[in-house]
Structure formats: structure tokens, C-alpha cells
Amino acid sequence: MPFEQLLIEGLAMGACYGLFGLAVVIIYKTSEVMNFAAGEMAMFSTFIVFHLLTFYHCPFWVALLAAIVFAALLGILVQYFFLRPAKNPTLLSLIVITLGVEMLLMGFASWKWGAEQQEFSLPISYMVTYEPIKGFIISQWALAVFIIAAVVMVFLYFFFNRTSLGTAMRATQQNKHAAKIMGINTDRVFAFSWAFSSVIGLIAAVLLTAKTILDPQFMMEPFLKAFAAAVLGGLMSIPGVLIGGAIMGLLENFFGYAWPVWKPITAFIVIVLVLCVRPSGLFAKHWVKKV
Amino acid sequence: MDMKRAYYEDIELFKSGTILFWTIVLMVALFTLPLIATNYYLYLFNLIMVHVILAVGLNILVGSTGQISLGHAGFFAIGAYATVLLMTKLSIPFFPALILAAFIAAFFGFILGLPALRLEGPYLTIATLAFGLAIMHIIGHMEVFGGRSGLRAPDLNIGIPQLGWNLTLTTDFSKYYLVLIIAILMVLGAVNILKTKVGRAFVAIRDSDIAAEVIGINLTIYKTLSFAVSAFYAGIAGGLFAFVLGFFDPITFNMFLSIYFLVMIVVGGLGSIMGSITGAAFITYLMYALFKNIKDVPYVGDFLTAISQRWLSITGMDNLSAIALGFVMIGIMIFEPMGIFGVWIRIKKYWKTWPF
């Protein structure tokens, strides 16, 4: 494979990881919860799309819209029923709760749709390619990923900086109690951030189905990579996660081309090495623990 | 309620006659159990005790030192593979191989402990997670480890074949006693570690690592030591697990196993030995016994089968265990963050101070 091809594919995969990493970062930014269930929430919503397509023969866009609504509701419900009742949770208990949600959703999805792989076809194809500049072949899928990632980024930028809900989210992240005193309903802010994260996760997962198969475990690896990308970016910064995702995607593609056997773990090893040098990611202030 | 008046009271093994009595009862029960239990339950008990060893070790790291690890399946795998390979390839007798394997795991724990010195919270979690995944992939891709097809454990010969002393344990019945004795020794070791200077240093690091450093605890030594001790326990557990299971492949040691391990100590109670034991027993029973045979349970099984046929899929019914585990994890964190041990403490306090 030529260099340009690896570059574009790596960047597209990286944009996917970055997009999915955004789902992790949005929640971490507002409520400092590491959402291990993000992958399975996205998987579950993707299965809703699949279900509507296969059993009710909806048009793709209707199914996607319905799934987006479902994803938003799922995020809110998870936050409302599982995160909100925990009183004074520690980091570990939040991790255990989100891991519990992950087990729950994965178990239920496998119960409902079985563990076997499902047929799922996107309207954007991986096979249709364009060649805007000579030598740079870009597939329709990669193009869609770039466009969607850019749109989501711009949207989030304006959302966090220009709207009152976005400002409230940033305020909640900086100081929950002060935000409460200023009249922000922090619980509702958390619920919104979960809904946002869930929807972005769904979009990323639907894009990823073009590259992988659809079964109840298909989001495991992409999720871990996206999570690692978010950690690489510092877990707090939105541009950081996309850059982290791009680094992950490129590393994976180039190393994967050189040593295919070690493709699944090169990225992780690099993450650990980077963390040894910069303990809180590339684009964050040092993770300060309150004493 | 638990006031201590002398240093000896803090370090003594049995706090009271009652505890001594019940410990003896438990020991007698455990040693006579194989006489009445069927083979299947012996296998389950072996599995439980392997998990007890691991949970006790993990609790030293997570509960007592406050470092989160999602990579303990990696140490577990190192223990299992190292024991079997040392025995088959280098023909080292069982006990030296087991201990050597545990030290190899401890060495890897020490290595993982080094980045852990600088990492905290989410970053440490992802680093340990990456370690577990890396171990699984390395094992799966190297021929010496049997690759994807896995490895078969040799006969469990606990004698020294070189000197002509052979004692081969073949049944679950005989393996039970081996695993039980090792488990008791390991639990005793953990109880005693936590009562020494080292254990107190761990607890101090958990409560506040800055304060611990101020009073003269060397964080570098004790944090890596905590990882190494915990990995040592995981290595021993892994070595025994290899023989309890008889056959294993890299997929056995996937990320979910690490999650189960974490859930065991969280459900049992962080920082408590008894908690780790009950948690390991409870989760192992839930995952490996109860939901494996849920279809045969009267009424409940029929009901679930009917639901599966009507709305869901019958092939996916095995995943009920994952759903149940998810509910247990969430429920315990919401209603009783201290785990089963916390419930026990509450009951004890209620009865000790009863009329009030």
C-alpha cells in the first residue's frame, strides 16, 4: 500500500476514534466520570438502527434518526438511574458502575440479537473512491468520516463557547458547588452531557460498522482505542482528543502495515510509553488531585 | 466497639475467642467438605479458592493501596503459562515452578508499578488495561505459548520426579486439598502483611499519598511493592488455575476476567480480607454455576425460556449472567459501597449495641 493511502486511511480511522473519544471526553469534562459503558451504549443504539432496518424495513435515515433519539434517551436514563443515586462516589465506584452498565447492555444485546454477526450495510460505501489530487485516493467512507468529524467539532466548539447550556457544562466541570449556587441544575447538565455523548457515540459506531462486523462485542476494541486516544489527548480537551485519535489511527495503520501481527496492541504500548513521559496526556494540565 | 488497648491486640491473628472458634469451624468444614460434595461442586470450590487467592492479592493493591488495576488477568495468565511451561519445557517440579512463576508475575507487577508511580486515576486505569490486553495478545501470537489454540496442563505431579518421588493428583478431590492448603497459606500471608509495617505503609498511601510521603514512606518502594505482591498472588492463583481448568487459551484471560476480579473485591468489600473471600465466592458462584444452569431451575428457568422464545433469542440466554453481574455491580455501588463486608459490619454493630 502506498504511503498516501496509509496516511488517509489512518487519518480516517483516527477521526473515527477521535469522534468516539469525544463521547468519553464530554462526560469526563462535565462530571469527571470515566464512562466505560460508552462503547456498549453506542453498540446498543447501533443495534436499534439494525433492528429497524432489518425487521421493519425503514429507510436508513429514518432508522438513524430514531436511533439518535433512542441514544439520547439511553444516555439520560443511564445517568438518571445508575449514576445519580450513587452518593459521594469515588473514582473506583464510578468505574465499577459504568462497567456494570457495560455488562448490562452487552448482556442484553446478546440476549436479544444473539452473539452471531449481523448483516448491516451503510449507504456510504467503502468501495467507492475519489481521487481529488493525483495519488491521494480517498474513499467515500473516509470522506464522510472527515466531514462528520469536522461538523461535530465545529458544533461542539460553538456549543461549549456560545450557548448557555454549554457554558453551564463548563461551569459545572470547574466547580460543581459554585455552579449550583449560580442556579445551574447540575443534575440536568449531567443528563444532557450523557445524552450528547451517547448520540456522538452512536454516530461514531455507525461509521465504524463499515470497517468491522456487527455483533454485540464489536465496539470493544474501538472503544478501548478511542478511550486511549482520549487519555492521550488529556481527557479534558476537545481538540486534544481528535489529535490523540489521529495519532492512534496513524500509528495503528503504519505499524499495522509493518507488523500486522502486533497491530491490535501497538497503539496501547505507545499510549503507556507516552503516559510514562507525560502522566496526564499530551494536551492537559497535570492531573491534580485535591488534597 | 473495637477499642485496642495494646499493640499486641492490633497484631494478633484472632481478635477474640469467638473468631478463633468460627475459624476452626470453617477449617473443619472446608477439610471435610469433599467427603460429601460431588465432583462438580469440588471443581467449583477449586475455582472459588483460586479466585480467593487472586482477590486477596488484588485487594492488597486496590483496597489497601488504592491503586486501580484493570489488568490482573494479565498477571493471572503469566502465572498459568509460566507454571505450565516451566514444568513441561524445563521439567521443573510443581512447587518450585509455581513459586518461580509467581515471582515472574511479581516482576511484571514491579514493571507495571513503575509507570504507576506517576499515573493516577483514569490514566492508571488505562495503563493497566493496556497491560492486560498486551499480555493476552503476546501470548496469543507466540508459538512457545501455544498460540491461539491454547495449552494443556501436564499431570499435576507434586513430588520431585528427578528424585523418583512421584505423587500425581488426578481427581478434583485431591486437587481440592492442594488448592485449599495453598489458599489458606496465602490468605494467612495477606492477613499478616497488612499487620506489618509494609501493610500500614500501603494503607497510608491509600489514605493520602502526600501525607504518607511526608511521614517518611518511600512511595517508589511501597507502590511498586504493592503491585509486585499483588501480582505474586495473581501468579500463584494463575498457576493453580491452569491445573484446575486443565486447558486454557489466551481468550480465557480476556478483559472481562479482569473486570470480574475487580468486581469480586468491590462486591466483597474493599480493603478487607474476609470481604475478598466472600466476594470471590459469591461472584464465582454467580458466574460459573448459577447462570450456567439457569434453564434447569424450576419456574424461573421456564419463565426465562418462555420470554427468550417470545421476544428475545434463546441462544443468547447465557448472557443472563452478564446482566445479573451488571445489576450486582451497579446495585452494590449505589446501595452499599462497602460491599458485603459493609453489610456485615452494620449487622454486627446493630447486635452489639442492640437495645440502643
Question: Quick recap of the structure?
Answer:
The complex is a heterodimer of chains A (291) and B (356). With 291 residues, chain A is mostly helical. Chain A contains 11 helices and 2 strands; from the N terminus they run ααααββααααααα.
List the helices and strands and how they pair.
The complex is a heterodimer of chains A (291) and B (356).
Chain A: H1 3-31, H2 38-55, H3 60-83, H4 91-113, E1 129-133, E2 136-139, H5 140-162, H6 164-174, H7 176-181, H8 186-208, H9 220-233, H10 238-258, H11 263-277
Helix pairs in contact in A: 1-5, 1-8, 1-9, 1-10, 2-3, 2-4, 2-8, 3-8, 5-6, 6-8, 9-10, 9-11, 10-11
Chain B: H1 7-11, H2 17-32, H3 39-64, H4 72-89, H5 94-116, H6 121-141, E1 151-152, E2 156-157, E3 168-169, H7 172-195, H8 197-207, H9 209-214, H10 219-245, E4 247-248, H11 255-268, H12 273-290, H13 300-310, H14 320-335, H15 339-352
Antiparallel strand pairs in B: 1-4, 2-3
Helix pairs in contact in B: 3-7, 3-8, 3-10, 3-11, 3-12, 4-5, 4-6, 4-10, 5-10, 7-8, 7-10, 8-10, 11-12, 11-15, 12-14
